[in-house]
Structures are given as C-alpha cells and as structure tokens.
## 1
Amino acid sequence: MEPSGSPSGLADLKLLSVTTYPHLPKVGGSALSTHDMCLSFLQKGVRPTVLARADKRLTRTLKRGEKKDVLDQTLGYDVVRAADPVNAIESVVEALAPTIAVVQSGQQIECATRLIALGVPTIVYVRDVEFDRLSGPFFEHPLLGYVANSAFSAQAVRRAFRINCEVIPPLVRRASYATESERTHVVFVNPVWQKGVATVIALARCLPHRKFLIVECWPIPRWERLKLWFAVRALPNVTWHPPTTDMRDVYRRARLVLVPSRWREAWCRVVTEAHVSGIPVVATNIGGLPESVGSGGILIDPEAGTAEWADAVELLWNDSRAYACYVAAARAFSERPEIDESHLAEMLLAKFIAHQVAAAAAG
C-alpha cells in the first residue's frame, strides 16, 4: 500500500504509539518511557495517541459489551485501551490516519506487519533483547525502521537479524524523579527472578543492620508472591512498597539502588531515574547496564556471590569520601547532553519525520 501521507515537519505529524501491554497506570519501564515521550512531544507541539491493551478488569467489561476499546484522555494525551490491540490497529488507523507509528513493546512484529499493510510508516523501538517474544523475526521493508534504546540492544539486533538501529536511549523526564534523598535505605525495584530478587533477599539477610525497600512493579504470580511474602516477613529490615507511578517517595529514601539483574538488561531506566537525584547504583555487569550505570555506580560480575554485593553496599555506606564521589558522578552522568529529555524528544521526532519522508519517497 502507499504510505499514508508524506508530512514534511512537526505540523504534519500524527503519531500513533502501539503496545500490546497495558499502559499507565500499570507500571513498567516501557510504559513509563512511552508516557515520558508523549509528555515531551506535547511540549514540542505534537499530540500523540497511544494504543494499548486494556487491563484485566476493563478487558472483561469490553468483552461483555459491544465496544472493543475505550478512549482515555486522563493522561493529557489520547490512550485507546483495547481488549485486543493487534486487531484494533485497523480501526484506530482508520479513525486517526496516523502519518507515523512507533511500536513500543509486546507483539512488536505482528503490530508492525499490520501497520505497514495499512500503509503506515512504522518504527519498531527495541527496548529489550528477548527476541523470542516478538511474535516474529525483525525484517526489512521500505515502510519499516528501527530504533534501539542502547548500543547493546542495537548490536544484538545487528547480530541476530543483520539490521541496523539508530540508538536513542529511553527518555526520562527529570522533574518526575528529582528529589532530595534522606539516604536511609537500599532500594530495589521490581522483585522478580529476572531482576535478581533472590540476591536482594540474600543481601537483606546478610546485612540485618541495613534497611531495604523493595518496590513492586511487574505483576507477580500468586505462588511467587506467597514465597516472597514469607521471605520478607522473616526480615524486619525489609519494607515492601506497592507499585507506584510517582517514584519520588521511593528515591527520597534511597542511599543506593540495587540492580542485580540475572538477564541481559537492554538499559534499565531505574538507573537513570536514580541518577537524577545523585543516587548511586550497584548493578550486574551485564547487557546494557554498563551503558546506563556509567560512572554513577559499581558493576558486579554476574557470577559474584552475596559477599561481593555486600562489600559494595557497605562501601557506599561506610566510606563517606567514596560515597560522595559516586553521588557526584551519578548526578553528573544524569546531566550528560545525550540523555537530556528535550534532546531525546528532538532526536525521536527527527527520526520519525526522516522515516516518513523516506517511506514516501520509496512508495
């Protein structure tokens, strides 16, 4: 099909952001990055629309009635929440007539295939390297382009599919995370196996004199939640925090943030969020974490035991000179121009416009 329009600038841009995961207020890195992107685009004069999966309660309501989706405008931009986002693409494209689409997460390839079949120039934003969950392999097409959130994920795409991606890190709006920290807790976000919750529980047992704050994020299976509940119940130095869309209360208590991931993180926006307030990070030396941590923290070998993690925590607690250096480095690393929110918004918009022009020329 012909590309849907050939816009030449921001005034002509009609952006559709697509995910097969739920959008805010459900919490997750991809949803938060999409939200921050949309808010930054609004400041640039571009009004985006997000197509996302409805949460379980809304999905049940939609399936009982005649409607297949609902329009939500409470976030400041339009969010179409659908029981089946893939099958909602056609009706949303018909109603919105987008000039560009960006597929953020979930069944990215299936969504991209539907969009380009409708003539919509489409960008796949690569946010992780779990390629078996994509609903198909990456492929080349005149209407299809790719952006990666880190050099690590771009390299993984190049190795797996021989496709090049422009690297644009996740957009983090500083005002949503900046706070003056009391620096009283070791903070860990997203207590699931992949993110290293077992390491955190072991550390809390090893360091009973330190306060730990564990912040829930992704949905946790019932049996896993029960196991975690029993583990945390036995540790008086651990506090459990429910999911939140305002992380300032969390970072207000953080002396450091733990990211003991067991999988190949493509970036991990929690690192950037913590750095905004000068909070150092202790993270696994894996995937894209060296890129996001930079000089603002300590990297631990993936095969290291609890003792090495404990040594890093204690260094940041007991050595005031070393801690001050890491605080300054974390804050400075968060202020580097290449992750400035306005700069990243402009990079994304320039990429979208260039892709539209190229798609129109190829059409």
## 2
Amino acid sequence: MISKSSAVLGLLLVASSFTGCKGKLAEQPARPVRTKAVELLSATAGARYSASITASNQIELAFKVGGYVAAIQQVRGVDGQMRHVQAGDLVTKGMVLANVRQSDYQVKVNQAQSQVREAQSGIETAQAQSKQADQTVETARAQMAEAQAAYNRAKLDFERATNLFASHSITKTDYDASKTQRDVAEARLAAAQSQVRSAEAGAKVARAQVNSIQAKAKTAAEVVNEAKIPLGDTSLRAPMNSTILRRDIEVGSMVAPGKPAFLLADVTSVKAVFGVPDRAMPNLKLGMPMTITTEAQSGAEFRGQITAIAPAADVKSRVFDIEITIPNSKNLLKVGMVVSIQGEGEPMTAGGVTIIPLNAIVQSKDQPGSYAVFVLTTQNGKQVARLRNVKLGDAYGNAVAVLEGVKVGEQVITTGATLLIDGELVQVIP
C-alpha cells in the first residue's frame, strides 16, 4: 500500500483550482457529466491501475506516389464472397495491399526504354563504322609499307646510278631514269603516309562516336531505372506480418504521396501505458511482473512486465508513465481495450478501504488546502451535483482512499467536476 497522498493530490488538482459557489441554476440546462460509484477495495488488493491496450509496433502505410487507387487486395469473407481487406484482417510481409493506376508511370518507363533502344541501335551503327575505319587504316598502312619498300629500292638504285654516272659507267639517260624512278617512289610514299594519317584520324573519330553513343545509352538506362522506381511504388506492400487496424482508401479514390492508406500493427505482443504518482515510483521496477484483466475476457488473467518507466513526470498531470508489455500470441487482447492492471502492494488493514477515482477530486471551497468531491443527488426528480468535503488517505493506483465524506455506493462525478458549482443540475452521460 502506498503512503499518504495529499501531496500527490495537491499536484493533480492544480488545474481544478475553483469549484464555484452555490447558486440556483434551475433555469440553465443540465451540464453533462460522468460518474463512478464509490468502491470498497479489498484487504488483499494491491495498487490497481486502468489503461488501454496499444500495439507494440504500429505504422501508417502510405503511397510514395500519387494517383487513383486502381485495386485493393481481396480476401474471402465469412460469407464465402471476396471482399477488400479491412480492419482486423491479418496480412503477411510483402503482400500487395493496394495499387494506384500504373499507366502514367508506365508511359515514362516506355519512353525511357525507347531511348535506350535507339541508343543501342546507334551503338551498333557506330561500331560498324569504327570497324570499317580500322580496316581502312590497316589497308593504308599496308599500302604505305609497300610504298616504303619501293622507295627504299629506288633510293638504292639511284645511289648506285649516281656512282656509276660519276665514273662514266652509265649514260646520262640511265642516270636520269633512275632519278625519276626514285622521285616517283618518294611521292608515292608521301601519299601513302598521308592516306594512313587520314585513315587513323577517321578511325579516331569513329571510336569517339562509339564512346559518345555508349554514354548516351548508359544515361538512358539510368533514366529507365529511375522511371521504374515510381512505377514500383504504385504497389503498396505490407512491411511485416501484421493486423490491419484501419483502411483509409477506396478503389477510385485519389491519393497524394504520403497520405496514409493503412494503419498496421504487430499485435503478437501489446502494451499498456498508465500513470502513477511520484509516491508510487519506489515500488515499481523494470521487469516487475504485473497482472492484467479486462471485462472483455472475464475471468482471464494476462501476465506482463514493466518494460519502460518515464524518467520525468508529465508537466500537466504530474504523473509518471509506466509501460507494460504483454504477450498476445492468441490475439485475445485487442487494441483499444480497457484493462485493469494489478500491481504488488503492501497489505491493507482488515476490511479494506473506501476508494474514489483521482479525477473526482477537486479543491475544497471553504477549507483551503483540503479536498472535496461532487456527489450525485436527486432533488425533485432532477439530478443535482452537491459539493462535499472529504478526508483523503493513501493512493491506490488511479484511486485514492477516502476516510470521511462519502459512502460506498454513492456516485461521484469524475468527468466535468472542475466546471461544476454546488447545486448545479447535471445529466449523467455514458
């Protein structure tokens, strides 16, 4: 059992610093409120808290690209008919949950692929021209080699003729003929060399053209890959084995990039988060086992353990958030269920104690520093809220012991109490 909680309640009630004054408001409409009965906490009970179940891991799944929803994954319903997946359905990792219309994105892929085909065709043509230019170079070099050999022979013949002419061994006519043959061979060699240089230049241009078209083809291929990314993003796939908590799209609806389409959750384990006052913190440790019950599973108890403790209190409520993780392999605990959490507490006095919810407490009007509650009463057939001073005891989770002021079974106002004044007409809502 937790120690005296007056300081805790003082923090919790900063927001409820007034309770109003007595007055006759019969002419005003009844104010809607919620109530809870004053209870008797058994002598063997420890601290109890209320919380709602949330998924251990949940994500909003959205399209990366926009467009019209063309299809939603279908499954067979309990009536045997095919229907679109909906909240509560189980999905597996990689399953396509929905598609947006692909035609707009397929057109871009087709255009890019057409550019790739054109570039490939250009490469084949350029490579054929480059091959032909290389063959021309080889032919020119062969012709130059022949011209070089002819020139070398003519040059030697002319040198011999020069020596013979100097020794008067040949006639002037023979000398002139040898000189003419050498000059012709030299001119042919020069022409062959020029032809080789021209052929090599042509081959270089052809190779450069091949390289240029290959670069264009590579760029076009990259464009294809880039165009395929948004095309692939037209399919929305489940990133994990999960349960659908919400579906926000319909076939034919227009979705924008980033707009949530599904809310998915892994519910093989679930979490319950509740707040405790500072006086309860020394009794709570990481790994501490907790018992969870819910009216939806009457008689069933679930075991969990504390997996996170907030390092600081909430600035408004002044309570510390405690997180419990609960195995849920049979999927009995549903997201949104309200559960009761039983902690281990010190034994109470015999007979138990009278408790009321913490959110029913307001500040006393006529006793500064003290507390009060609004009790639901009936006057002339109408429901009326009456302010009543109370003496508080220890805190028990989300409740506090009341030593004086109310009786077990009386209804105290829990929602709307801070807005009431004594004697105001009220209407209890569910």
## 3
Amino acid sequence: MLALLFPGQGSFEVGMGRDAYERSAAARAIFDVADRALGFSLTERIFDGPEEELRKTENQQPAILTTSIALLHALQETVPVRASFFAGHSLGEYSALVAANALGFEDAVRLVHARGSFMQEAVPEGRGAMAAILGLSAEDVAEVCIAGAESSEVVTPANFNSPQQTVIAGEAAAVERVCAMAIDRGAKRAVPLAVSAPFHCQLMQPAAEKLEPELGRIRFRRMSAPVVTNVEAVENSDPQRVPALLKSQVTAPVRFVESVEYLVSQGVTHFLEVGPGSTLSGLVARIQRRTQRANFASMAGLDETREFLINA
C-alpha cells in the first residue's frame, strides 16, 4: 500500500523543478498556471532566484507547492500513481489536498501565497524563533518548554519530526533559554533554524484569523483518497472539515511522527515523497525503519521512482 508525502517550508533551492519544466508538458502547465494565478513570474523566481527573494515565506510557500505538484504531474505522465493515502508536512498538506483532488491547484497557489504573507506579518522580525532539539524525547522537550517559559512567554513544540527530533517555536528569548535547558537535560544538540517567523505556535494566531476568510472562499471537493492531517494525525475524507483543520494547522504542532505511525497501522508499506529535497523520506526511516521509502525530487530519479511504484 502506497502513501504520497509532500514537503513543507525549508525544502527549497534555486532551480528546483527546472528539469521537469523542460521535459514535461504537464509540469510546465503547472508552472504556467501558478504565474497566471499570482500575477507575477513565480517560475522565474524559482529557477533564477535570487535565493534571498525565494527564501521569503510568501514566495517560498507557493514555490514549494508548485514544484511539488509539477513533479507529481510529470511522474503521472509516465507511470500510474495509485496512492491509498496522502499526507504533507505543514505547507505540504496543501500539496496533499491538491494531489487528492480536494483542492484545485490555482486556488491552492493563491491560498499559500496569502498564507505565507499572513505568517510573515504575524510576528515582528526578531521577536520569534525556532530551533530543532535533537536526541531528546518529545515528552522531555514538552516538559522543558513548560519549565523554560517565563511569565506569559510562548515556547512550545512545533514539529514532532521523529522520535529524536522535535522542533520548538516561540519568542526568541524563550527559545534560546529552552535550548540551553534541553542540553542540560541530555539533548545531543539544539540547532537554531534560519526561519523568518515562529511557525506552529500561538504567536501565529493573527495569521490563522486572516487565513480563515480566505479558506471560506474555497470550494473543497470530495477526495480521491484520504489525507492524514497535521492537526489530528489521522485520516480525513470530509471536504467540509478541511477549512477548520487548515486554520488550526497554523498554530498547532505538526504531528508527523504520529501521522507516519497511523499510516503504517492502516497498512501502508511504501512511502513516496514528491517535491524538492528528501527530508520526509529521511524522517520516515527514523520513525518506521521497516517501510520502503523513496523520493522524487527531479527527473533524474524518474526511472528509479517508476520502479518503486511498480513494486509498491
């Protein structure tokens, strides 16, 4: 049984998806739709940069979505892709909804462009931060966050990425303090992340409120297969529940470990990550070693991915 996974913010590089654009008419069409929907050449920013421009949240989010869906369409041109489930990490949940036919791509690219802007605007630059805590259990990280917060400070787990990697987010001073406490507790490392805002914590509430009416304008459709959501870490097939789940996702932690464990419990044996990078397939290996994993990040991997799908 196959599940498709889609990456979130951070999995980007200038030039991603260029070979799919050049070799696949279906992929090229996706890039063209994105440019028309946004009213500027997102494709040019993806292929030519500069990196500082592409790194901006309001550009990076639609860029990763567009590249992921373009790669999926390029793959579908050559081999049937029959997934039993879809899932994504944060932003990647929008790609998963597009892949499941619950959300039109044109609506999705406009939505994540707005989402990126709202998230960037929610917290003044320098106030928030994120860091990856390595080598400490999720339970211990949660305890350190509680112990490290002073007064009404916000600092909480934001991404449960693997049993030994939890990302925290919140106010910069609190994040720095919790990192130091985590090392004292036995963490191997505490790595500050180069992000523009503290995602998936209560500081993002203004972004969630701005996103809600945008979500209300979208018509979500019946899904071709269930999407395992970040907020609940179980499958959802009801399109009417999607807007509330996506609003909650802005401030709630990404429960990726539980999502992978749920998929395995439902019989998934093969995970294919579609989109730039290979972060999620690497995380799956740490969560469920006995699964089969692959990633499709460029046309160079087409033959290998085709073989993986045939055997899934």
## 4
Amino acid sequence: MSLSFPPFTRAIKVLLGINVGVFLLLLILRTTGEGAAAGIIVRTFGLIPHDVVHGRVYQLFTYGFVHWEFFHLFFNMLMLWMFGSMIERHFGSRQFWEFFLFGIFGAALTTVALAYTVGGIIHLSPDIPTIGASGGIYAILMAAAMLYGDQEVFLFPFPFAMKLKYLVAVLGFIALAGALSGGAGIANIAHLGGLLFGYLYLKLVPRRGLTFAFSEGYYGLRNYYHRLKRERTKKRFQVYMRKHEHDPKQYFDEYGNFRPPGERDKKDRGPGGWVN
C-alpha cells in the first residue's frame, strides 16, 4: 500500500484559484465591517430560484463559485482536487470544464424545478439562496464511480478502503435522506442533481462532448442547406434550358460537372490514342 496525492491539473488549479479568491473577497468584506456588501454579493451571484425565474439566469452557474464558510470551501476544494484531477485526465481540460459546468447547471436546474414543485415537502424555499460547488463535485463523483468504480480509496478519517462506486452510493443515500428530512444548511437537492446530471452526461453525451456534438450538428445542417441550394439552382437551370430548347447535356457531363466551351464540340474520335 502506498500513499500518493493527485496532481494539480490545469483546470483544477483555475477552479481552486477562483473559489478561494471569491471566498477571500467575502472574508475581507466581513472582517472589515462590510458584511452588508458581502451579503449583496451572495444574493446577487448565489442561486435563488425566485430570482432565476425572474431573469437572473446567470445564477445557474455563478452560485457554484461562491462559498461562505471555511470548512464548506475546504471540503469542496479537497474533493475537487482528489477526484476532479482524475476526471480531467480522462476527459482533457477543455471537456472537463464542459462537464463540470454541466454538473453545476444540472444541480441548479434541479434545485429550481423542485423548489417550485415539491418544495413544501422537501423543505426547499424559492427564496433561500444556494451556494457552493457541490453540484459540480457530485457530478465528478458520479463520473469517478462510473469510470473507476472498482478503484479503492481511503476516506479520512476511516481506517479502511472502500471502492469508489460504494462510496458514491453512500454519499447519494446520505444526500437523499437529508433532502427528505430537510437537513438544514445543506444543499442536498443540488447534490442529487449533480449526481443525476453527471450520470446523464456520461450516458447520453457523445464521447467528445457537447461542444463537439453541437459543432458537428451545425456543420451538418449547413452542408445540408448548401446541398438543397445547389439542387434548387440545378432544377432552375434545367427549366431555363428546356424553355430555350437547349440540351443540358451540352453543358454538363453525366456526373453533373460543367463542361468547358472548348470540349463541347469535340467528337468521339474512336479507338486509339492514349488511355489513362
């Protein structure tokens, strides 16, 4: 048995820097007597379902970079480093950003949807802000369980190893129990949303990611549009030629390629000559 630490990959370093920087800004404001300003930042960039449905859709992403308590930030960043670096090496930095933001967005969407449907049952109010990167981190945990489920890890401070798929199952059960019991101060719905959207990404999104799928779809539609334009132009030209009693075969070969004027009057000279 050996003890090793994951590397600080490119996207992980940027995410750590953003989250720690925002936390330090809020901490400085609070310690210098500007707690009201810190509260405005949280309510502006945190996830508030009421604000989202009234136009502040940017909150579906920005809430994932805001932390208020030190230990909330510490454990989120620890999990991000431990498991996020593993997933970034699998996806690559560009697609890892896409996957992480997909998890953040999915967790936020789940929170907003449930706040306006079964919020009274699960004690989720549309006016209470949700902050933290847990949605994206739980999506990362789901990806780790699906890709490296049999890999064993030690969960501090427990002195025994556990397979990743069982660890994520336990964390998912805790989040579900917390959501049903109305665990105060913990965004259990965001955790469950992150797990769900992490699963959906790996199951439904093409291997090279959403960006690749959208670009392929765009170029496919563009090429189809140009083919339709060429077909319409071809039909119009044929109608024009028939009206003027011209044979289109004089201008195009059997493959639809344009014949230069110098080749139109050439006769079939029979066998002989070079054959390529």
